[in-house]
């Protein structure tokens, strides 16, 4: 992993004074999740007057948080939840958004702003849809205004969804916690009442079995570690050539190593048979394995194009067909079923010079996830994607210095994310509590401006 | 007073091969030149632990060893296992039977499981030519011991002044037989000549070994048997592009005093190699309780030794005798086996053993049998390559063969596999596995 020496310097007393005087970016040390720690430290303010806002306040009180409807001037708050769920015209935004504005300066380091509203796309009335869509715009702009590692995100509820649905609580808790440290300016949707809340919020994956492809190093190894920390047993998969690091990952997380080329015709079957033999069950599949073969399109050859498509998307499609056809991956427990999480990329959203093959494969993942969610619905399963932005890995450490420095600063948090930030979002989407969210691609990019 | 249950030790049960792991084997003084026996063995064990999720488990026993072993590695197996995530309450034993070290370790562990003494075990082996121990001359050792005993700086200095340049020549370990002063290759050349083993058939066997091993790698056969080490992904001795013409051009390396009749070259003799392997065994109950596969049953094994010193028998012919006793005991013939894994110390070793088992006189006079032991079907021999292609890190060869054969037999219940491994000192081990 590359070292972000600038962020280290800014976070010294001399560095802070100097960089402030020069008007340079001020990347903060982000608060990250540690098991056993409180969701947030300090008061949480709920603004808005809808009945949903009362229910949200009651939910937070149930978690033992210091919930406020009003705060004293200059008092530090850790989070603000702004409920826009009842807006029917753009004029309705005013009261709640100005209420949010009044406390915004009191949000502390690594604080959270979460807007809550109903899905715009299902509103037929132009005024209603305008009001709801307006929340999206204001949320993304608030995210740009946040300072000191604080973030702003939206939680979108389906039209008639009860606020008491498990995934509303799950999504809120994820966005409030240090698990979402590098998620900002993003919109998390809750579509259904599916999902179950964990007995222990620190062990949401207790007793589950998860496959992680590309687990030998980097983001994949981090995903294996976070899923293990959350209670899952891990099947770590990577190509035979990466077997030595794969064994190290598997031993670190007390899991099993499966050396496997995911482009093999029978890769899905081999994963299923390993899971059946060694663990007797399979609950979570994380398609993390991926490759880059960057080249401008004018210089692209078939080898580069085809290998990226084969590994990054074709293999996932083939494995999903095998997984979804098998009884082992088809056992809803209560109202929570199998989980698939795929790694997309902001390249697949915004495109990137020299990455037509990679962007095609990753945009393909986004499309695949959206289309596959219907197949999982009947078994209370979900499939989602996580799209990382600039993450400090061995891969980005090889970028030229200037390109890397620019890529790091071009987001609202003025820094690169860490593999663990991607892993936390994967772990959330893989958890029983996220059962109401499916077909979504969640960016973990610090609100990156481009598709790095 | 309660009486001990004397029926218990007689109630033997099955010992099963669960799986194996090895690091790719590398030619001596090559990729693993800076790795020690302990490094390689620890890596092979770590890969095994990761493959089967054994972290934190207390196994019944870990046994194995190395042939070329530093005196500081007196507790090699125990020290290596302490570098893995296995429960440190797992006991370990060092074993040594030259090239049959791995086989002897696995066989005796299987016996312990069959007797109910332990439920699970790892049999392992490692060898490094690149990190071989170097022995100092007896004169220098005497002086150094004297320095060690010295009580004053004066005495120490006085002892040190006795060192002469001639004392400093290191005594590199050889692979020569101590009692004959002949290398293993020279011994084998004598045997090969006596049995009339030709150059062409040796080269063909060597070529098949390379082609079979390369094909097995390409088919992914080793994906769950081999874990890379220090960036090496395949055995470095492997020459997939070899041909009979290329092999035919090589000059003889052993038995040169036979002149025109010398047949053994560097290509049909196995190169010195570094590497390590490990095999996981258990009772059926252990495998079931831990959701582990049961690839094959370890049916039986037999040791043998021959008097090679005065030339009464070939140095590497002991497995011929072991096989005869083992098959007779089990009421089997060579025709009863689905697969044969005969360690290719030299191509001529394999061919001489096969010839001996087919030879009526030899079987009657030397093995005490009424008829030849039988024919080894060549289409069932070393189907995924053997030592000529993979290399032969002495003690690691047993683990390689057992894991490979067990995987071949998996899914073929009742089919039998035959193993033969020769060893220095005129020794050898044979074994029988049965598919599940």
TrEMBL record, chain A:
Q: Does the keyword Ubl conjugation apply?
A: no
Class of enzymatic activity (EC top level): oxidoreductase
Gene3D superfamilies reported in the protein's UniProt record: NAD(P)-binding Rossmann-like Domain
Q: What is its EC number?
A: 1.1.1.100
MF term (GO), any: 3-oxoacyl-[acyl-carrier-protein] reductase (NADPH) activity
Key words of the record: Oxidoreductase
User: InterPro entries this protein is in?
Assistant: KR_dom (IPR057326), NAD(P)-bd_dom_sf (IPR036291), Sc_DH/Rdtase_CS (IPR020904), SDR_fam (IPR002347)
Domain Ketoreductase as annotated: residue spans: 208-394
- Coiled-coil region list: none
Q: Where are the transmembrane segments?
A: none
Q: Pfam families attached here?
A: adh_short_C2
In which family does this protein belong, per the annotation?
Answer: Belongs to the short-chain dehydrogenases/reductases (SDR) family.
- Name of the protein in question: 3-oxoacyl-[acyl-carrier protein] reductase
Origin species: Nesterenkonia xinjiangensis
UniProtKB/TrEMBL annotation, chain B:
Q: Which residues form the active site?
A: 99, 392, 422
EC number of the protein = 2.3.1.9
Task: Identify the domain of life.
Answer: Bacteria
Q: From which residue to which does the signal peptide run?
A: none
The answer to keyword Ribosomal protein applying to this record is no
Identify the Gene3D superfamilies for this entry: 3.40.47.10
Quote a single Gene Ontology cellular component term.
Answer: cytosol
Question: Can you give the residue ranges of the Thiolase C-terminal domain?
Answer: 294-434
Q: Could you list this entry's UniProt keywords, alphabetically sorted.
A: Acyltransferase, Transferase
Residue ranges constituting the Thiolase N-terminal domain according to the UniProt record: 16-285
Recorded GO molecular functions are: acetyl-CoA C-acetyltransferase activity
- The answer to keyword Transferase applying to this record is yes
Q: State the similarity comment.
A: Belongs to the thiolase-like superfamily. Thiolase family.
Matching PANTHER family? ACETYL-COA ACYLTRANSFERASE FADA2 (3-KETOACYL-COA THIOLASE) (BETA-KETOTHIOLASE)-RELATED
Q: What is this protein called?
A: Acetyl-CoA C-acetyltransferase
């Amino acid at each position: 992993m590359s070292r972000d020496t600038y962020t280290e310097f800014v976070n010294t007393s001399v560095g802070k004074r100097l960089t402030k005087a020069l008007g340079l970016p001020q990347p903060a040390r982000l608060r990250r999740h540690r098991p056993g720690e409180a969701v947030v430290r300090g008061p949480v303010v709920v603004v808005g007057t809808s009945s949903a806002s009362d229910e949200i306040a009651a939910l937070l009180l149930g978690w033992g948080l210091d919930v406020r409807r009003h705060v004293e001037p200059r008092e530090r708050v850790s989070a603000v939840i702004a409920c826009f769920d009842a807006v029917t015209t753009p004029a309705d935004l005013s009261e709640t958004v100005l209420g949010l504005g009044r406390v915004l300066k009191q949000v502390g380091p690594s604080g959270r702003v979460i807007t809550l509203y109903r899905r715009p796309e299902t509103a037929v009335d132009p005024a209603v849809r305008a009001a709801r869509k307006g929340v999206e715009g204001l949320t993304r702009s608030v995210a740009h205004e946040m300072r000191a590692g604080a973030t702003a995100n939206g939680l979108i509820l389906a039209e008639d969804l009860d606020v008491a649905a498990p995934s509303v609580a799950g999504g809120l808790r994820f966005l409030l916690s240090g698990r979402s440290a590098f998620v900002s300016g993003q919109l998390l949707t809750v579509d259904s009442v599916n999902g179950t809340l964990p007995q222990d919020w620190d062990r949401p994956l207790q007793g589950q079995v998860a496959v992680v492809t590309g687990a030998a190093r980097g983001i994949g190894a981090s995903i294996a570690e976070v899923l293990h920390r959350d209670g899952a047993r891990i099947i770590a998969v990577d190509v035979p050539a990466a077997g030595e690091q794969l064994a190290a990952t598997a031993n670190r997380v007390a899991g099993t190593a499966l050396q496997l080329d995911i482009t093999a015709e029978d890769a899905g079957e081999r994963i299923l048979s390993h899971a059946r033999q060694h663990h007797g069950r399979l609950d979570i599949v994380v398609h993390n394995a991926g490759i880059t073969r960057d080249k401008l399109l004018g210089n692209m050859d078939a080898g580069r194009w085809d290998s990226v498509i084969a590994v990054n998307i074709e293999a996932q499609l083939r494995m999903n067909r095998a997984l979804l056809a098998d009884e082992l991956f088809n056992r809803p427990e209560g109202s929570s079923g199998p989980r698939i999480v795929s790694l997309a990329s902001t390249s697949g959203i915004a495109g990137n010079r020299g990455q037509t093959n990679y962007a095609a494969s990753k945009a393909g993942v986004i499309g695949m996830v959206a289309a596959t969610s219907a197949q999982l619905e009947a078994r209370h399963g979900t499939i989602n994607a996580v799209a990382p932005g600039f993450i400090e890995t061995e891969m980005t450490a090889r970028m030229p210095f200037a390109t890397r420095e620019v890529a790091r600063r071009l987001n609202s948090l003025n820094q690169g994310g860490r593999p663990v930030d991607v892993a936390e979002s994967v772990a959330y989407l893989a958890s029983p509590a996220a059962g109401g969210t499916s077909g979504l691609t969640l960016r973990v990019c610090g609100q990156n401006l481009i598709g790095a | 007073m309660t009486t001990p249950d004397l029926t218990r030790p007689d109630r033997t049960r099955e010992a099963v091969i669960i799986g194996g792991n090895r690091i790719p084997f590398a030619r001596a003084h090559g990729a693993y030149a800076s790795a020690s026996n302990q490094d390689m063995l620890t890596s092979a064990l770590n890969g095994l632990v990761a493959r089967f999720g054994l972290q934190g488990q207390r196994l019944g026993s870990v046994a194995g060893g190395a042939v070329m072993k530093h005196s500081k590695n007196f507790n090699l197996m125990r020290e290596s296992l302490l570098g893995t995530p296995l429960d440190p309450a797992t006991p370990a034993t060092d074993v040594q039977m030259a090239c049959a070290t791995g086989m002897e370790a696995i066989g005796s562990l299987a016996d312990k499981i069959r007797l109910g003494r332990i439920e699970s075990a790892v049999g392992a082996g490692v060898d490094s030519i690149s990190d071989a121990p170097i022995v100092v001359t007896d004169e220098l050792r005497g002086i150094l011991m004297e320095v060690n005993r010295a009580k004053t700086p004066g005495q120490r200095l006085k002892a040190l002044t006795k060192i002469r340049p001639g004392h400093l020549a290191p005594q590199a370990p050889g692979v020569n037989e101590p009692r004959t002063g002949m290398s293993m290759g020279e011994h084998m050349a004598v045997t090969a000549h006596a049995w009339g083993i030709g150059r062409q058939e040796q080269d063909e066997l060597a070529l098949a070994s390379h082609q079979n091993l390369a094909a097995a790698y390409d088919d992914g056969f080793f994906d769950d048997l081999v874990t890379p080490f220090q960036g090496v992904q395949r055995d470095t001795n492997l020459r997939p592009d070899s041909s009979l013409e290329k092999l035919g051009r090589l000059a003889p390396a052993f038995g040169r005093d036979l002149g025109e009749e010398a047949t053994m070259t560097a290509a049909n003799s196995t190169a010195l190699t570094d590497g390590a392997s490990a095999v996981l065994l258990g009772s059926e109950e252990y495998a079931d309780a831990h959701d582990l596969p049961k690839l094959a049953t370890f049916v039986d094994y037999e040791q043998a030794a021959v008097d090679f010193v005065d030339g009464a028998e070939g140095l590497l012919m002991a497995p011929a005798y072991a096989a005869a006793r083992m098959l007779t005991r089990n009421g089997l013939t060579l025709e009863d086996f689905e697969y044969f894994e005969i360690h290719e110390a030299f191509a001529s070793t394999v061919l001489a053993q096969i010839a001996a088992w087919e030879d009526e006189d030899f079987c009657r006079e030397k093995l005490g049998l009424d008829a030849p032991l039988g024919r080894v079907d060549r289409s069932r021999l070393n189907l995924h390559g053997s030592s000529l292609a993979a290399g032969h890190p002495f003690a690691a060869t047993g683990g390689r063969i057992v894991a490979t054969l067990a995987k071949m037999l998996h899914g073929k219940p009742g089919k039998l596999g035959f193993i033969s491994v020769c060893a220095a000192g005129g020794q050898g081990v044979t074994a029988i596995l049965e598919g599940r």
